[in-house]
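Researcher: Go.
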Amino acid sequence: MDQSDKQPEYFRHAQQIWTMLDDMAESNPQAYRKFIDKQLKEGKEVMKPPEPHMCVQSLIDSNTDHQLLFINILGWHRVPAPKDYENDPIPVMAGQLQEEQNEQGTYTIVSVAFNPRILSDYGRDGKNPEERTAIINMAINYVQDQKNVKVSRNFTVLPKETLFKGDIATVINSLRQRFAKVDEATDKELQELEKNFGPIAGADHSVIGQLSNLATSDRKQVNLSQNSKTEFQLPTTMPARSGLIQEISSSASQTAPKYDLIIQEKSGDRCRRIVIKIDLPSVNSVTECELDISEDDISLCVSGQYDLKLKLPEKIDDSRATAKFSTKSHTLTVTLPTTR
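Model: Structure:
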């Protein structure tokens, strides 16, 4: 059996990306260096831990009593921003309900995360108080729907000195747990890629190693804590707008890109092959593309933009497949040697 058949699918995907990056390093070193620096800078932003934005105090209503509830609202780049603020739902996620105790009794804490842009525009310091109220009510709606509790619509936003309630490491880890399995798998894959492929051509340091460090460094930096006390107030608030919440696991609409498929016959040393040219006019970087190739089909996904699944007219040798992306023409060219 060919050794390539034993490799995980992500190895084959990595080989295709490596080919494209190596070509870029050789043909345009300056653009390559700029590209790598840009990816590392963006990676640092994405891998930052959630940042506390404001803390909302309310009550969990039940048939027997009312328990104090603190909703920690945080900004996190791992929660995407909506593409269209007017029409698209706002993605949101939350950690688990956690019970704590102090000298006053038992209270509950839950952490809710939005994209930082949402909180910058509509959060604590937003220009329109009604929009801030709508964001808080979205958080309450999400907590009620996902945690099966009833939360009072009478709430107060705690002073800026109290951006969150509880221990900050616990607050952040309650959100990170949502990505724990994904992060663990990513760490292992990055380590395997580093071991199997090494640095990309032309890189001063291992790019994979730097990305791996980004993926783990923010998990080692959370060691703050905060104790805070505040009086409970019950202002009247407006109801949240409906239809504006989106769980981050839901997928955005995508369209199939235009493409051309041709079969090039064997010529001299060149084997018979299928060449597919895919037009991606709104794509500027190869890292936006997720390409999977098997012996009888290919799948291309650009998150939130394009989705293409294509059955091939004949079987190909996927271990020898290559892909190149042109930033000038915004075209991805996939070359697939056939088995004939």
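Model: Confidence is low (pLDDT under 50) at residues 1-7, 199-209, 214-245.
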